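Weekly puzzle thread! Below is a chain. First person to post its structure in token form gets bragging rights.
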Amino acid sequence: MTRPSPESGTSEVIGRDGEIEMLAALAGRVAAGRGAVVLVQGEPGIGKTSLLDAARVRCAAAGLHIRLGVATELRQTVPFAALRSWLDPDTPGADPIGALLDRDIRARDAGAGHEIVIAEAILDHIETWCATGPLALIMDDVHWADASSVSVLQRLCARIDERPLLLLLGARLQPQDSAFTALAAELLACRAPLIRLGGLSAGAAAELVSNIVGATPGPGLLREVAGASGNPRYITELVAALLREQAITVIADIGEAVAGQRPSTTLAQAISRRLDFLPRRTRHVLAAAAALGPVVDVTELAAVLDRPLLDVWGVVSDVMATGVLALVDSEVVFRHELLRQVLSDQLPATVRAGLLRTAGRVLQTTNAPIERIAHYLAVADYDLDDVGVDWLVAVADKLAFRAPEPAVRLLRRAMTDSDNPPPIHRYIEALLWSGRTAEAEAEVRIALSTRSECGEDIEMRWLLAQACRARGRIVDAVDIAETALSTMDLDVEAAGRFHGMCAVDNVFLERFDAAEQAGRVAIAMGESSGDPRAIGYGSSAVGAVRYTRGDLIEALELSTRIPIASTVGTGPDQFDPYALRALCLIELDRLTEAEGVLNQAIAHNRRGPAVSLSANLVAKARLYLLNGRWDDAVAECNAGAVPDGLGYSTVAGSLAALIGIHRGTFLPDVDSIRIADDLTGTTGYAHLHLWAKALTHEAHGHPDLALKLLVDTRERLADHSAAATLYYIFPDIARLAADLGDTDAARSVVVGADELVARQPTASRIGTALLCRGLAERNSDSLLAAVRAFRRSGRLLYQAQAHENAAVLLAAAGRDVDARRSLDTAIGIYSRLGASWDTARTVARVRPYDIRRGVRGRRNRPKSGWAALTDTECKVAALVAEGCTNSDIAAQMFLSRRTVQSHVSNILAKLGLRSRREVAASMPHT
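Winning reply:
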């Protein structure tokens, strides 16, 4: 009997803290006299043996006697071979199995009866061990256990609660017909805990690499390691191979991979050996699947290999049971890119190319998705034959929309190598869809200057205008469209589209009369020709003008005509069919509806070149600024890495700065605030950075400069694109004017607010007008009416501002109880928002009247712990705990992946965690 010391013979296990603590808790339970059985399961190399070794140390620390064993493949047919590994052959009488097997038994004792005798002897032996104290029986590689040993283990599991025994088993994921299946079923029946080991988190993988290399891994090395999907053995073998081949350099304690290295033969052989347990036929099918790509489509694989579908499905099912393949989002995929690469490389290059070529040709005759066919044709890298070119021409428009990058590669190859090349228009469309707008413009201009047949080509002019527009050169796009209208022989449909483009682009250029005129012409021509795209362009432009001028209901009605129009066709001239409707709903105080429409808009943009995605994210951040979800607003502002030809990233920065100023976390020098550039996307939000600059003046003790800047901003932008939301700054103008005694500024903002209400009496506009009038006339009743209006609108910040101003006027009038009530309500709302600067300002404004806070409102949200998470962060954390990837979460919550990553980073920081796995382990139980 052995009892190792807790410190003996084990190495550090990285990234498995939660699992180790769970096993330590079970060891403590067994030490207290209650039995337990645990199965640790995972793919080859995932760290089962290391975890069992760490568990051994914890068991020893808990005072358990320990028996270590392992089953082996070569002894699968030897009765009780696995259990004999627990026994000590050097101790007399310690191996009853050997004694019984060696005994000269009579015929009547042979067969099944003989095995029963041995099994009972083993169980008696284990009873004896347990009688001397709590016991841990640890067995690795149970998937190789012989049938006799499995039978005894099943009986132990069924009686585990009766003895102080921890039965700890390690097993590889096996095909379903494995002999281990019966034991697995028994473990399930007795509700034994299952530890299914997955890949290490990114942080744990980096720590493992650092231990091997002796330096902090750089981004290039981590990218190489990412292909191992967190498998510790694959990571270790990959890094060791790179070190042997001197493919890692260490400079200033940073280990970096040399670019262009592939897994070495040694590593490939090591990984391949770990799949030797699979039948040869299975490995051949698996190698073919690996050559075709990371996603395994069983129907396609059977067609390419010319094998029965059920045969291939049987092979794939067996491999999925081992963990080499996994089901992700209803697709069968390789769990490890490194493993797929090794399997693919086992095939000669000519065989791989032949498989890809065959796949492309075979699938052209099926109903396979065109993007998958294009993938095989593009990766195969060979000249397209006439059949391939004909297929490409037939699907080019749809392919450019659904898979722009393969479309670009194939169309370029066909145009270069084919005697019957596809039209250049399709190639340019693919470039536009892929976001390569500069290349698209260059190709159009070359074609117009070198190909005589393109000179009067209407479609080429249209594509040129689209390319300029996508690059943010709106003036050039309008010039091209107007030139086409005045110099080319256009039919009604083409003329309607060019008028529609002029209309939409003139809105960006703030030429509102020209935009509305061209838009109405486009609508009329679209209705005459039956072209929904012209109707969509025209409705979008006219609606945008109506929105800018405050006629929200008319703008909303026009927006309903746009989605239908924009769903026709797959050309790159599509535009965002949801943006105008979302903006109208925000201004009509229908914030929940607006959020839903913006989610649709984000999903729509993800299906294309995403030219409007940045605008959608800014609109969503603006909505969250209004309804008080400021953390979510900041997350949207920080999404980044999206196409932004129109300059919306500057707007996002201004929104984030505004929130930072209110919270007292962003008080820079005034001149350091990023100034909006002259890109067209910033015109509708031109007041935001000036608003942030003004509040920064006030925060630095210069309210006079703040008021002057805000008044100048209102006067300068009143007739521009920002007019629709310019009233957002009115409450600050009214407050500063009242505090500074500037009656002219106070009266001007009252007039402006009343004009907005006359156009569209929404709750938020009514609240703004009441607030401005209440401050100008020092009427607290108007301010309390403003509170009620802002409450109906759902605009939390403005509700708090109305309470703040009411508290000041009530205090000045000697109505201390009412003043304190409004003060407490204002500060309670500011606390919910985390608006510490507003709280300090409010307290300072009522201090001269000797008004002190009564019952305190909710405190600011804690800075750490689960209570510090916002509602959105709680939802993201729950999905992370379920094992969802950032892509999964983005799709479910209609967020960008960068927004999700921002939320995940915030969650880890607030919870003090290092990995997504730790989020699941620390999730509160409700």
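Puzzle host: Confirmed. Bonus trivia for everyone else. Residues 112-131 form the longest helix (20 residues).
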